Amino acid sequence: MSDLSESRVNQRGVLAGKVVVVTGASRGIGDAIARRFAMEGAKVVVSARTVDSGEHYLPGTINETVAAIQAAGGEALAVKADLASAEDRELLITAAEAEYGSGDILVNNAAITYFIPVEDFPEKRFRLMMDVQVWAPFELAQRVLPSMQEKGSGWILNISSHAAIHPEKTLSGRGGTVYGMCKAALERFTTGLAQETYHKGVAVNVISPGLVATPGVMHHKLINAENENRVTPVEHMAEACLRLCHGDPNELTGRIDYADEVMEEFNLQAAELI
Fold it and tell me: Which of 107, 160, 163, 196 has its CA 20 to 30 A from that of 182?
């Protein structure tokens, strides 16, 4: 891996020349993954809805992510895509292929979340969450799998959450049932696809970040006095994600992982991001 003493692009890194598509990469975890993968020599297609500052109430844009990568000597392309749109899902992959060729790594990170109790949850928002967090990863995988399997090489990484774990029934909830459903479906999709692509050179994994102080987490006020001592740096998640996207695809596949456990298992040190 890159020299951790400096946060620059290593053109001969473990992802040298690989084409990576990262969704939800305008801020937070997606932004960190895009930067970390670029540091290892990948050509990164940075996708999200927010292109320019001021378009979203949260900070961060895909143009800013791309600018940071390019300033460090890396290659990156910004592609605006609303993953609730079938047209945008198709555009994302065709734009990536037109610029860099067929993809080697797909990171499904994009999410849209509403915390509303089941009895009050509107159908429109339910379908939107399912479209972005379940159907979009499924369809994007369908679009990249043929070329990956033809090459005999590829990695698909889905970003989940501890919300996928069944909650304690005695604890008070705060409207996270639909979010948990989406992430649980994503994890089952991951293990099923990993089984289908086993011995075809394509690895499929899913990872949860733990509690990271991303703009979205702060907006939803998910960090409080009870859990603030468990907040982990976003760099740890980016490092763990990188480790699940290179190596032997027949050994490193079908995993339901957590960032802190991956960091410990592989004795990783988090690099400073570009």
Answer: 196
Q: Where are the domains of the chain?
A: 19-265
pLDDT digits (tens, 9 = 90+) for 164-219: 999 988 766 778 999 999 999 999 999 999 999 999 999 999 999 977 755 555 54
Least confident span in 64-68, 126-130, 213-217, 237-241: 213-217
Q: Is 100 a catalytic residue?
A: no
pTM: 0.91
Catalytic residue among 100, 114, 179, 198: 179
Q: Is 274 buried (19+), middle (13-18) or exposed (0-12) by CB count in 10 A?
A: buried
The first and second tokens of residue 198, run together, are: 């086993």
Select from 3.40.50.1370, 3.40.50.720, 3.40.30.10, 3.40.630.30 the CATH code of 19-265: 3.40.50.720
